[in-house]
Amino acid sequence: MTARKVSFLIVLTFVAVAGRAQQTTGTSPAASSANSTSAPSQQSSSGSDRVVLKVGDLQVTEGEFESRINDIEGGDPDKKAPGDKERRKLGDDYASVLMLSQQAVANHLDSSPEVIRQLAIARMQVLSDAQFASLMRQAEPSSAEVEQYYSAHLADYDQVQIRRLFIWKQRDNSKDGSALTTQAARSRADQIRQAYASGTDVRKLSEDLRKSNDGMLDPQPLTFPRGELSPHMEKVTFALKQGEWAEVEDTPARLLIVQLVKLDRQPLREVSGSIEKELQAQKMQALLDDLKKKAGIWMDEQYFGTAVAPVPDAQRRASNPPSELQKSATKGKTDNEEQSK
């Protein structure tokens, strides 16, 4: 186990052991004897009630062990069940933590100020997480709310299929360091487009262009939802008619021309998940803001500073880091160089 997992496990088991120690304080020898004689019957039981681990008088059932390990591991439903060796390792680690926590209680460390402080913080965090999870359940949007949001923001889910044509005006591996003028680059692009319009296979055009080291042509269209392209490229691309080409970029290094292959809209079934998260986040924020008002929270601004104004949704989306699709829209030359190696 990692140090973080062991630390978390110590908190869980220390609380359990401390509580068990308080419950069993003053237990008579007869009662202890009764507990020890009842162990075989517990061991012979099946399912989650079967005792699978003992540390002194403390017994751990299969259900308790599995639930606590799931808490530590994050409860990932896709994670495979541990094999015999891994389960043995988890059991050894868990037994060691139980042993140490029992010893800590025996040495009265549970009454030390530092341990009390740490347990109080752990309790606060667990309660906070539980309440947060409860609010998240309350904030789950209904299917009707998702459909309503989708209908009110249809344009946000438009997407384009485009084909990019790059013509290199400068070649990094050029022996004479020659560079194409903008006019020469446009002439080369016109040749490619005319051949494409005449019915030449686009895959052959793409391969020939790559081999010539003159540029790059997408053999298959790429799909970009609204918001995934740079603002200028999105403005130009979404304004095109199907089949049209337009110049998007002219730099000393390259010329970029795009063709609109298709303009359509993402269906609700494909974006419902992201809409649910957006709506849940909005409702969750509203619930938290309401709780803060009712709780009467006050903060010393001389110490904490002034409150930061929330960023509007549209501005927040525009200020997000570029996505992988945005990066791909501007890395054509790099792609071509990698293919040429």
Offer a few descriptive terms.
341 residues; Chitinase A, domain 3; 2 domains; two-stranded antiparallel sheet; elongated; disordered C terminus
What does this structure look like?
The structure is a single chain. With 341 residues, the chain is of the alpha+beta class. The chain has 2 domains: 3-129, no CATH class; 158-267 and 322-340, Roll (Chitinase A, domain 3). It has 14 helices and 7 strands. Strands 3, 4, 5, 6 and 7 form a 5-stranded antiparallel beta sheet that branches. Residues 24-45 and 314-341 have low confidence and may be disordered.
Number of strands: 7
Percentage of residues in strands: 5-15%
Provide the CATH topology of the largest domain: Chitinase A, domain 3
Main beta sheet, described? Answer: 5 strands, antiparallel
CATH architecture of the largest domain: Roll
Number of domains: 2
Instruction: Quote the average pLDDT.
Output: 81
Amount of helix:
55-70%
Order of helices and strands: HHEEHHHHEHHEEHEEHHHHH
CATH class of the largest domain: Alpha Beta
Structural class by secondary-structure content? alpha+beta
The shape is: elongated
Termini separation (Å)? 43 Å
Question: Topology, please?
Answer:
Layout: H1 3-24, H2 29-43, E1 51-55, E2 58-61, H3 62-73, H4 84-106, H5 113-138, H6 143-152, E3 158-168, H7 182-197, H8 202-212, E4 215-217, E5 222-225, H9 231-238, E6 245-250, E7 254-265, H10 268-295, H11 301-304, H12 313-318, H13 324-329, H14 332-340
Antiparallel strand pairs: 1-2, 3-4, 3-5, 3-7, 6-7
Helix pairs in contact: 1-3, 1-4, 6-10
